[in-house]
Amino acid sequence: MATTVTLKPNAIDISGSTSGTTTLQATAVAGTTTLTLPAATDTLVGKATTDTLTNKTLTTPSVSSPTISDGTANGVAYLNGSKVLTTGSALVFDGTNLGVGVTPSAWGSAWKAYQYIGGSMASPNGSNNLILQNAYNDGTNYRYVGTAGASSYQQSSGSHIWNQAASGTAGNAITFTQAMTLDASGNLLVGTTSVNSVGVISVDFLGQTKQGITLDDTWASTGGVYILFRNSAGDTAGRIDHNGTTTVAYTTSSDYRLKENIAPMTGALAKVLQLNPVTYKWKSDGTDGQGFIAHELQAIVPDAVVGAKDAMNEDGSINPQGIDTSFLVATLTAAIQEQQALITQLTARITALESA
Fold first, then answer.
1. pLDDT by residue (tens digit) across 269-284?
2. Where are the alpha helices (DSSP H) in 153-278?
3. What's phi and psi for 251, nearest 5 deg?
4. For 125-157, how does the pLDDT look when each residue is reduced to its tens digit (9 = 90+)?
5. Which of 189, 211, 294, 320 is the most buried (most CB within 10 A)?
6. Which helix (H) or strand (E) holds 160?
């Protein structure tokens, strides 16, 4: 190969054959040899697309449209343990969605997903963020990634939504069931998608086959508290206690330390005589019942009744009054005592008359 090297005032001109190798060599020079181009915008150009720059360090280079010849299609370029730029099947980017250990599923164009083995984190817009297990969205339907069950957790406009689906075949459409929701107003909905009446916690269940709520006391002894009720000041208002092997106690706070101005009850017998016990049929199923009419009892023993007559909920449904007959016990007890006092007085008078 005929090669001519010409030293010019501002350049080294290498010319000659169009094939073979021409080496610009600094012989016996210790340390680092630097080839400096005169301006920041100057370009080092090879004669062919296969030209190779080997074992050289480029400081803050600008590389236009490079190709990593031994890379993985759609792989994400990264530095390996030897600080060599490479790609691998562990990271796959399709231009929109990133897969870690997997190739991203065929997500709809609006979706942006980070997918990994068994699950993904994805969002179609700024108002919805999801964590999905064995599921992806093709833009129209949720579909199974593999043949198994699926589930999702969604944050949507302030609400938290948990969905689940039975096992299905990979690629088939998923029909999710909304199992639980914590809505933006702080209402917890279980087995339903709407607030029942005005309850903060709403639970829908099929009583034929399930219990609404089950509380298991795993303490071998008794005395555990199943539910504790407190007022706004943090004081205990009532509780449901496990007070026996197979029994519970429903209690309302009655500690003397919570009370003042304690005095004997009077006029109890007169109250009892005003009570109007009745029998009736329930409108819902026609079954028979017995007891009191709430607003009638409220006029006589207000402590035994909660709610107001003819009250309505915001949704237009009735807000029914309720009765706690345990609050009649004190009145009935005092009435019996008053009645017994009268009986004792009358017995004494009869005895006196018979002895006269």
1. 999 999 999 999 999 9
2. 268-274
3. -125, 150
4. 989 999 999 999 999 999 999 999 999 999 999
5. 189
6. strand 159-168
What is the CA 103 to chain-centroid distance, rounded? 28
The Cβ-side half-sphere exposure at 169, using a 13 Å CA radius, reads: 1
For residue 233, give Cα distances in angstroms to 54, 200, 201, 229, 238.
77, 20, 21, 12, 14
Start-end of H helices in the chain:
268-274, 294-300, 329-355
Q: Can you tell me the mean pLDDT for 256-278? A: 95
* pTM score, whole prediction: 0.57
Contact 156, 138 (CB under 8 A): no
DSSP letter at 192 equals -
In angstroms, rounded to a whole number, what is the distance separating the alpha carbons of residues 66 and 75? 14
Question: Domain spans of the chain?
Answer: 78-203, 225-258, 268-346
SS3 354: helix
Find out whether 327 and 301 touch, Cβ atoms under 8 Å. Answer: yes
Tokens of 195: 């607030």
Which residues, 6+ apart, have CB-to-CB distance to 273 below 8 Å?
Answer: none
Tokens of 179: 């199992």
273 and 260 Cβ atoms separated by less than 8 Å: no
Cβ count within 10 A of residue 247: 9
Q: What is the C-alpha separation between 160 and 162, in angstroms, rounded?
A: 7
